[in-house]
Structure formats: structure tokens, C-alpha cells
Amino acid sequence: MTACLAACGNAVAQQEFSALEQQQISIETKDLFERSNMFSVDFDCLPDEEYSFPLPVGKATVVNNGNDVEIVTTKGDAVKAMFGGVVRISRNHPQFGHVIVIRHDNGFETVYGHNAQNLVKVGDKVKAGQTIAIVGGKDDRVFCLFSIMVDGRRVNPEILVDVRSHNLRAQRVIVEKKGFSVDVRTERKNLADDNGVKNADANPFEKSDVVRLDLSTLKAGEWAYPLPGCKVISPYGGRRRHSGVDLKTKPNDNIRAAFAGVVTRSGPYSGYGNCIVIRHPNGLTTLYSHQSKNLVKAGQKVKAGQIIGLTGRTGRATTEHLHFEVHCPNGQRINPNIVFNHDTKRLQNAILTIRKGGGITSRRS
């Protein structure tokens, strides 16, 4: 059970299911409210590896009066488990075709319908992001019909997930049993006050032509390495005069904003392919390119660590990777290694002096 789950109820995935639980999609969760009529889940503190959108590169649309999400993708795509849990149903259903229902450790259940092939069976324990099925569809359309339930009741998926960006919403979700009904409400953090996003439009040089940034003082949540788990396949500079650093993991991997800021560009840009540029209130600007898909728009405020795109090979690229750049206020490119240690995937232990007219110096803090 994740530490983000408030123990107000018995929201633990069961290991064994009755015959009825293995057949009926909408069914109350036994003992969910045994200890209390309420439980809560803080999704804001959920580690990244404990959440996955079911089809990360699919186009998602809320359908059926807010009860389901239809995720359109390409034939053969893999359907992923949203959270960790136990498979309650894996069968052919007259309405939903090959369908899977997973009961999660956080008390919710998710439904994945119209699969071409189910790859898990009842009782299997699954992790978030694990492939559970091959996408199918209906009437020559390739899609997954996805739903979220609690205690057998469908929950509007947009309460938990930003369907457009595929991101899990940073919030606390409270589930309360009221007689024969279940109420789901949220306590959402104001992102305008979170991690410096409030000041994302601020001019860092308003009071001085020099900004000093002590990287060693930044706390968790105030920065993020843009592609965790990567390896450097092309460093900054060299004979190629490479303007950034190329980082590689796997196709369609999550790319994260290095710091809070405002997106100033999001779209195709010459040889960069799908490109994102973010201006940060610390005086720096970062660039991310070759994405298979951008998940943010120009003018949008983002927080540090927010997923902004998926790795790809759009533009001039021979393999799926992230091209990452760091710019000074005048647009001058600098070595990203001044900011990040690519071996440890952490900030450098340094104080940066950033000048309004361009240029940056670094000394150990």
C-alpha cells in the first residue's frame, strides 16, 4: 500500500475474488468501508513509477456522459495498468469484448475494454505501467474504452486525470460512503502557488542585471532531471558544435520540465521536430526536442517535474531520444552540464551567476 493512502478505510486490493466478482464489472468492493465510511488518497505524492496512462501515445476523449474515456491509437499498441493492483476480471464480455478490471491498492478500480488480447489473468498482481493487453477496438476502429470505478460506481475520469495531457492531477481525493451512494471530492493544490509557478512570468532581472542561483539549495519538487534513467548518446559541443545534449532511454518515454516556468514554444520547429521551450523565473530557458508528442501548449504554466512530452525522432533525428538545451537570457546556449550532472541525474553542487546581457559562470557552492 502506498504511503500516500490515508488509512481512513480498508482500501487494499483483495487477493481472491468470488465467482460474481470475476464476472460482474460493476460490483461493490467488499470491506472497502469496513473501518470507516471515508478514505483518501494523496496523488500529489505518488511516485512517478506508480502511475501510467493506459495508452501513453493515444488520443483520449471523454465519452458516455463523463463515465468513460475512449483512447484511440494504432493497431498492436500495448495497454498499460494505471496503478498497481490485482486483476479481478479478465474475460470476454458481451458489451465490452475482451475486458480487464484491476482492483488497485488505493481503493479504486480501472476497466480496460475492447482489447484484442488480454495478457493477464484473474489474481495476477500487476504494477503501474505493466502491459496487460493488446489494444483492440470495434467496427474497424482501434481504441481502448477506459473507466475508473470506486465501490462499483463509475467515477468521472477527469476528476483524477487530465485527459488531454494524460497527467495525474496533483491533489488529494476523498471518497466517502453516504448511505447507498459514494461521494468523490478533491482538495486540489493551487498550482499557481506551487513550486514557483506563481512567479513564472516574473522578470528575474527586474532589480538587478545579475541573478545568482544556488543549485544546492533547491529542494525536491523545485527541479527535475528531464529524462530519468537515460544515457548520454551525444554530449554538448565537440567537433559537431552540438548545441545541447542528446539523452536516450526508450521511445515514448516521459520528458519532464527541469524547473517551473512558462511554455513559450510548443510545436514543430525546423530540424528540432516537435519542440518545447520553457522560460524559468530563475533566468534560464530550457529546450526539449524531437518529441513524438508534446503534452503542453504555449502560454501554459508548468511545474518542475511535470511531464511535458514523449521521446521520439521527429525532425532531424536518427533514433528516438531527447535533445536538451539550456539557454541564457539573451538566447546564448550553454553546456547543460553546468546545471545537471548527467551521471548522477542530479543538480550540480554549484552557484550560477546569470547575467541579463548573456553569459553564465559557475563555482562550487
| Overall geometric form | elongated
Strand content: 35-45%
CATH superfamily of the largest domain: Glucose Permease (Domain IIA)
Q: Report on the biggest sheet.
A: 10 strands, antiparallel
Computed CA radius of gyration, to the nearest angstrom: 22 Å
Q: What is the average of the pLDDT values? A: 88
Task: Indicate the structural class.
Answer: mainly beta
CATH class category label of the largest domain? Mainly Beta
N-to-C CA distance: 39 Å
Tell me the domain tally. 2
Count of extended strands: 32
> Number of helical segments?
0
Low confidence ranges: 5-14, 190-195
Helical residue percent? under 10%
**CATH architecture descriptor text of the largest domain:** Distorted Sandwich
CATH topology of the largest domain: Glucose Permease (Domain IIA)
Quick synopsis:
The protein is mainly beta. It has strands at 5-6, 38-42, 59-63, 68-72, 78-80, 85-93, 97-104, 108-118, 125-126, 131-138, 141-150, 153-155, 161-162, 167-168, 171-178, 181-188, 210-214, 231-234, 245-248, 254-256, 261-268, 274-279, 285-291, 293-294, 301-302, 307-310, 322-327, 333-334, 340-341, 346-347, 350-355, 360-364.
